[in-house]
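Entry 14. Structure prediction run on the chain below.
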Amino acid sequence: MAAVVNSRETRDFARELKFLVDERLAPRLVDWARTHLGRDAFGSGLFGDEYTTTSLYYETPGFDVYHRRGSYGRSKFRVRRYGSSDIVFLERKFRTNRLLAKRRTTVPIAELEHLAASVPEPGWPGYWFHRRVLLRRLDPLVQMSYDRIARVGMASAGPIRMTVDTNLRVLPMPDRAFIPGVGFPLIDGHCIVELKYRVEMPALFKQLVETFGIESSAVSKYRLGLSVLDYAPLTTAVATEPGPVH
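Output returned:
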């Protein structure tokens, strides 16, 4: 069995810009990224920058994450799988205006059954994740999957990253299964470009924006997915009480 990997990352002044772009532009954007940025450390394919991502997103009965109520608007919990790997990542992402903090733990996909228990198991590597989703009344709601090209580089303020996501799909998933690449099209005819950097946009990304004439937008895969599935509770849900931990 593979060794458990735990990681924590905290970044001050972390910035993320997203762009909803015509999918016909994707090949040119990818060519630009491969010319100006390096390969992703975990990518595959001919250029070492490709992978398929499938994530289970957690939500409360009152859709507090969707409505960004209180602390639910700052913390997101998900289980992520890359390709057909037998390892998954239990993740929490916490964001404020100044700070971005991520915590990840790997577990074998067969051990996801632990998350079905009503009491977390202290000896299990995913104990912290299970404890928090129980306290915050979170359960898996939907699966999001997409194909990603990822390129990385370095600017004066720190690392930079560009991703291009295509073939985005959403599927109702109120359990802990994974069905990669299956679901309803999320944004037919479009792709999502994301730029990550620190402090201020580097000159290279300014060049990208100017070259392709793209404009950033507050696009959220999760929120788009729930809209596609037309969840009636989104307009009538009642807020739940948040748990004591984030």
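The longest strand covers residues 139-155.
Filed with the rest of this week's runs.
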